[in-house]
Specification:
Length: 466
């Protein structure tokens, strides 16, 4: 009976502990093939680890003739024995007893040859780029970080909920939403000189969600501690290295919690997930540290071990105005902080992450709790060195009359939010939550410069390929 396939990662870790005995089977995609003196060396990778594995095929192998047909990109299966390698660049190798070609790759057509390709070129090959070192490492780090996020919340008793992707509510009040419709755009039904929304699938305008927060508040008002982790969509025409039209958000919502409790949760959360990825992806993080950001590991270790500074927005503005720095964007109370301001606070003023609280109500969303001064809201931004804001959150407005007033000021029709207002009518309780953009966090953790290289299939203006 043939040996069961062993992942390269498991094979190498088992060998280092002395647990490998007898024949093994490995499968993967060919990186390179070279021959010397009747012996062929086939380098493969199966995606389980950054490390490749060398298959040694000599003339005694009954399938030696297959070697001449192997090219970069082929998939193969090899049975053999793991042994110490005499060559440089690897500690172990497989002495092949048998070899099988699973899938060929025409060397004249296969676009990923043994050379460095630009990230821009690889974006055009999103179906193949996970086979490269960079994008394999991105996928593994992204996976580890997602697991670390779930682990953090699950260990603290949070309930994982799935909020709607299709919604009739604009959680941000910004209007940059994708319409979800079954109407024939070339022959729109009319009623009274306007589009007849009653003829649409839902009988009303519906959109792809920009946030699961409002629905998460429903569960927080029943289950206390919940979180969402799902896709969100923004129809902003922002064609930059920091924006995506489709991305994933992590949004915990906690009942009986004020802003101070939320700030501590956010601090514990960031320290935990960065420590998790450093512990579980050492090879991949070393790769990013070497090729993309030579201060990356130190930056993440500093955050994982730091006590975050707290300051109010008013204190932050005062510190920026007293800094003597010449900022591109003027600093004044009532204006939102820009990345250059946030980075100054974390990198030069404080030297570690900063949680800025109590922003002017005029620049924050309608659902954030109004402070007693009537001018600020109980909002927070968590700032980290090198990028600035990484988390935004707030204590929510639980008082019905003030929430309704804030909605009027924001120009929102409260009819679609009837259920949201009901939460303030029936057993309302203080609660708070934050949002973390998953792709931006993975981008920060890997040192990659373009967010389109952090998600498998980026959706951006005029680009929905794959």
């Amino acid at each position: 009976m043939p040996a069961q396939r062993t992942r390269i990662k498991d094979l190498l870790s088992a060998e280092s502990s002395g647990d490998v005995t007898g024949p093994v089977n490995v499968k993967g995609w060919v990186k390179t093939v070279r021959s010397s003196g009747g012996v062929a060396f086939v380098q493969i990778n199966d995606g389980s680890t950054l490390a490749d594995l060398q298959i040694v095929v000599d003339a005694n192998c009954p399938d030696y003739s297959l070697v001449n047909g192997l090219t970069t990109g082929c998939s193969i299966s090899a049975d053999g024995v793991l042994q110490d390698s005499l060559g440089r660049g690897q500690k172990y190798e497989i002495a092949a007893a048998s070899l099988e070609l699973l899938g060929s790759a025409d060397p004249e057509e296969y676009p990923l040859q043994k050379k460095r390709h630009t990230l821009e070129f690889l974006r055009e090959l999103a179906h193949l780029r996970p086979r490269t070192n960079t994008f394999g490492a991105v996928a593994r780090v992204r996976n580890a970080m997602a697991f670390g996020i779930h682990k953090f919340f699950q260990e603290r008793g949070f309930l994982y909920i799935q909020t709607p992707i299709i919604t009739a509510s604009d959680a941000e009040g910004a209007g940059a939403m994708f319409r979800a419709t079954t109407l024939d755009l070339n022959n729109l039904p009319q009623a009274g000189g306007q589009v007849d929304n009653d003829a649409d699938f839902f009988g009303r305008p519906a959109f792809l969600t920009v946030s699961g927060q409002l629905e998460a508040e429903i569960f927080a008002q029943s289950m206390s501690d919940v979180y969402t982790f799902g896709p969100t969509f923004r129809a902003e025409n922002s064609n930059t290295s920091r924006h995506l039209a489709e991305f994933w958000m992590v949004e915990p919502e906690v009942a009986f919690c004020d802003l101070d409790g939320l700030a501590q949760l956010a601090e514990d959360f960031l320290r935990s997930i960065f420590a998790h990825v450093l512990e579980n992806c050492p090879e991949d993080m070393a790769f990013f540290n070497r090729f993309y950001d030579q201060e990356l590991i130190q930056t993440l270790e500093d955050i994982a071990n730091a006590d975050f500074e707290r300051m109010t927005y008013t204190e932050a503005v005062a510190a920026l105005q007293a800094s003597g720095e010449s900022f591109e964007y003027p600093v004044q109370w009532g204006a939102d902080l820009q990345s250059e301001h946030e980075r100054y606070l974390t990198e030069r003023k404080v030297g570690r992450p900063v949680i800025v609280t109590d922003y002017p109500s005029s620049i924050k969303a309608f659902y954030m709790r109004l402070s007693d001064d009537g001018q600020t809201v109980r909002a927070m931004d968590v700032l980290v060195p090198r990028i600035g804001e990484i988390i935004g959150g707030s204590q929510r407005e639980e008082r019905l009359d003030i929430l309704q007033r804030r909605m009027v000021e924001a120009g929102l029709d409260d009819a679609p939010y009837w259920w949201y207002l009901d939460l303030r009518r029936y057993g309302t309780a203080p609660h708070a939550g934050f949002g973390l953009g998953f792709e931006r966090t993975v981008q920060f953790a890997t040192g990659m410069q373009n967010i389109r290289d952090i998600i498998a299939f980026p959706r951006t203006p005029r680009n929905a390929e794959f």
